[in-house]
Amino acid sequence: MEGVPLEHILILSALLFSLGILAVITKRHAVVVLMGIELIFNAANLNLVAFSRFDPLLLQGQLFSLFVMLVAAAEAAVALAIVLRVYQLFKTANLNQINHLSK
Amino acid sequence: MLFYLFALLAVLSGTYMVLTRNLLYAGFSLLVTLLSVAGIYVLLFADFVAVTQLMVYVGGVLVLILFGIMLSSRVHDQSVMSESVNKVWGTVITFLILVGLCYTILHANLHMLPWLETADMDVLGLEKSTVHIIGIKLMTDFIVPFEVASLLLLIALMGAAYIATDKQKV
């Protein structure tokens, strides 16, 4: 692993981030938008862990990435509950058709 | 070398997740992406983070997402598909973001940073496992975020259960 330069990890992270952004922009199903957001979280975590390699005694990057994962899990649980509720109300999960507050 | 294999796998399955119209295929390709990112964590000497990634993302979030897909699409009349919109503008914006990020990364002169240059990276090879350090850190320096995190998880659990309840039937 010493052979892999830091830039390559950062570029992989940038690629994953862009794919997440693309999913958020182009997809119209609420669950796929959430999947794009998870991809963005993963890209950020990859950056944190990559830099944490240079901080072996404190490991602040790894600890921070653990907290990011935790917030992502909480976000996914609440967001999917909201999506299910919206689906029960509107009978669709297409974000373009959900444009009023109540039935 | 293993890093490039995992990186290729992550990028390919991420691209497939964006391109496919079938929601279930998108979910399973996200699974492959998350697994390869966990492999990269192992290669970056972050074993505890890799195991947490497997347990939280692959074991928790992905199962939730698959449940969400199953429960919010009518399978019988092909609603498990989803169309893409804004294809041209989305691609342009994403490409601009990617080019900007890569330009910044390649011109950042990361090796001039003093704390990267003087880093003692041999310690990690000797230590074998980060679990000991992370456990001590979580119980000393990071005790307040740790407790706040437990509170946040409790609130999220209660909120999700409350929101998803069908109030008309109860």
From TrEMBL, chain A:
* An individual GO BP term: ATP synthesis coupled electron transport
Q: Which GO terms describe its molecular function?
A: NADH dehydrogenase (quinone) (non-electrogenic) activity; quinone binding
* The keyword Cytoplasm appears for this protein: no
> Membrane spanning segments where?
6-25, 32-51, 63-87
Catalytic activity entry: a quinone + NADH + 5 H(+)(in) = a quinol + NAD(+) + 4 H(+)(out)
UniProt-listed InterPro entries: NADH_UbQ_OxRdtase_chain4L/K (IPR001133), NUOK/Mnh_C1-like (IPR039428)
> What topology does it adopt in the membrane?
Multi-pass membrane protein
Keywords (alphabetical) are: Cell membrane, Membrane, NAD, Oxidoreductase, Quinone, Translocase, Transmembrane, Transmembrane helix, Transport
Its Gene Ontology cellular component terms are: NADH dehydrogenase complex; plasma membrane
Compartment list: Cell membrane; Membrane
Instruction: Give the EC number(s) listed in the UniProt record.
Output: 7.1.1.-
Tell me the subunit arrangement: NDH-1 is composed of 14 different subunits. Subunits NuoA, H, J, K, L, M, N constitute the membrane sector of the complex.
PANTHER family associated with the record:
NADH-UBIQUINONE OXIDOREDUCTASE CHAIN 4L, NADH-UBIQUINONE OXIDOREDUCTASE SUBUNIT ND4L
Family the entry assigns? Belongs to the complex I subunit 4L family.
Q: What does this protein do?
A: NDH-1 shuttles electrons from NADH, via FMN and iron-sulfur (Fe-S) centers, to quinones in the respiratory chain. The immediate electron acceptor for the enzyme in this species is believed to be a menaquinone. Couples the redox reaction to proton translocation (for every two electrons transferred, four hydrogen ions are translocated across the cytoplasmic membrane), and thus conserves the redox energy in a proton gradient. NDH-1 shuttles electrons from NADH, via FMN and iron-sulfur (Fe-S) centers, to quinones in the respiratory chain. The immediate electron acceptor for the enzyme in this species is believed to be ubiquinone. Couples the redox reaction to proton translocation (for every two electrons transferred, four hydrogen ions are translocated across the cytoplasmic membrane), and thus conserves the redox energy in a proton gradient.
Protein name per Swiss-Prot or TrEMBL: NADH-quinone oxidoreductase subunit K
Q: Which organism is it from?
A: Pontibacter diazotrophicus
Gene responsible for this protein = nuoK
TrEMBL record, chain B:
- Keyword NAD assigned to the entry: answer is yes
Provide a GO CC annotation, any one.
Answer: plasma membrane
Q: What class of enzyme is it?
A: translocase
Output the Pfam families linked to this UniProt entry: Oxidored_q3
Catalysed reaction(s) here are: a quinone + NADH + 5 H(+)(in) = a quinol + NAD(+) + 4 H(+)(out)
Question: Which keywords appear in this protein's UniProt record, sorted alphabetically?
Answer: Cell membrane, Membrane, NAD, Quinone, Transmembrane, Transmembrane helix, Ubiquinone
- Any one GO MF annotation of this record: NADH dehydrogenase (ubiquinone) activity
At the top level, the lineage of the source is Bacteria
Query: Major place of localization?
Result: membrane
Under Enzyme Commission nomenclature, its number is 7.1.1.-
Keyword NAD set for record: yes
- Subcellular location(s) per record: Cell membrane
Q: Note the topology in the membrane.
A: Multi-pass membrane protein
Membrane-spanning segments? 23-44, 56-76, 88-106, 142-164
The Swiss-Prot or TrEMBL record describes its family as follows:
Belongs to the complex I subunit 6 family.
What is the annotated role of this protein in its UniProt record?
A: NDH-1 shuttles electrons from NADH, via FMN and iron-sulfur (Fe-S) centers, to quinones in the respiratory chain. Couples the redox reaction to proton translocation (for every two electrons transferred, four hydrogen ions are translocated across the cytoplasmic membrane), and thus conserves the redox energy in a proton gradient.
Protein name stated in the entry: NADH-quinone oxidoreductase subunit J
Organism, per UniProt? Pontibacter diazotrophicus
